[in-house]
Amino acid sequence: METQERLRLTPAQIEQYHRDGYLVVHDLLTDEEASAFVAYESAPRPEGWRQNLRHHVDDARWRHLATHPNVTGIVQQLLEARPMIVQTMYLEKQPAGEADKGGQGVALHQDLHYLPCAPEKLMACWLALSDTDAENGGLCVVPGSHHHGLHTTHKNENADEHDAWEVEYGMRDQEGKEWTERMYSFEIDGLDPDDVVRLTVPKGGGVFFTGLTIHGSYANRSTHRVRRAFATHFIPEGAWMYRTDVQDVMPAL
Ligand SMILES: O=C(O)CCC(=O)C(=O)O
């Protein structure tokens, strides 16, 4: 397999990813690249824009981040396969006390609950588009949690801290069988808060994590620091996505 990465991981970084279930890498984007995307996203958007998980298909700015060689090159090294893009999300979290519900986080979950696939080789790259940390609702992870399979969950109940929702998704398997599945804001049962590590990731840096790694975030408690991030989820070429809304995966490189 040809490797096209610009950034080559060291054996220690690859080992760390497989041991802890995540890896933080600084300077994936330049300050200008991160700022240009944020400025673009600050323009008014049509109602419901955020619900679409496939902007990378028809929006060149989204595609630029999702296919960025520093990101996809590392994903290729970690997956040991050609990465395919499943979905993209821009995750902006307003400081506490400002407009509506912007300050909420995402309940601690595993992505394979939301994005079941076979084989279960889903992974993500979460890019910080502003400086992020514990105070402004930065990404949190539970190191080593990917070694214990899929955990049982309940619907998130603390709406002050985390967004709560329910949606029905269409599913289809490799044989063409179709069904629907009700998904909700998954929160892992019995999680010990002491196991959660609140990461500090400067603007332009990123976190790579597996589909089984427990992660999420808390509300933005800062008074003036917006937390901005861009997440792309990948599977290796040939893997099957069950959710029909994200089944049409796109080559990342
Ligand atoms: O940005 C966040 O707060 C959470 C992101 C997340 O859950 C994800 O990228 O899968």
Overview of this protein structure:
With 253 residues, the chain is α+β, with helices and mostly antiparallel strands. It has a single domain, classed as Jelly Rolls. The chain is built from six helices and 15 strands. It has a six-stranded antiparallel β-sheet. A three-stranded antiparallel β-sheet has the order 10-5-12, with no helix packed on it. A hairpin with a 5-residue loop joins strand 7 (166-172) and strand 8 (178-184). The model is unreliable at 1-5 (pLDDT under 50). 2-oxoglutaric acid (AKG) is lined by residues 91, 105-106, 111, 124, 126, 139, 215-217, 229, 231.
Shape: globular
| Category from helices, strands and their pairing | alpha+beta
Order of helices and strands: HEHHHHEHEEEEEEEEEEEEE
Radius of gyration: 17 Å
Task: Give the number of helices.
Answer: 6
Mean pLDDT across all amino acids? 93
The CATH class designation is Mainly Beta
Which parts are unreliable, with pLDDT below 50 for 5 consecutive residues or more? 1-5
Q: What is the CATH architecture annotation?
A: Sandwich
Number of DSSP-assigned strands: 15
Present as ligands are: 2-oxoglutaric acid
CA-to-CA gap between the ends? 12 Å
Largest sheet: 6 strands, antiparallel
Could you say what the CATH topology is called? Jelly Rolls
Count of folded domains: 1
Helical residue percent? Answer: 10-25%
Q: How are the strands of the largest sheet arranged?
A: 1-11-4-13-2-15
Strand proportion: 25-35%
In CATH, the homologous superfamily goes by the name q2cbj1_9rhob like domain
